[in-house]
Amino acid sequence: MLPRALVQKLLRFGVVGILVAAVFMGLNWLFGHAMGKQAAFLLSYPPALAVHFFLNKVWTFEHRQAATRRQVGEYLGMVAITFVIQWAVFSALGLWTRLPSWLEAGLANVAQTAVSFVLMQARIFGRPRQA
Question: Rounded CA gap, 42 and 46, in Å?
Answer without folding.
Answer: 8
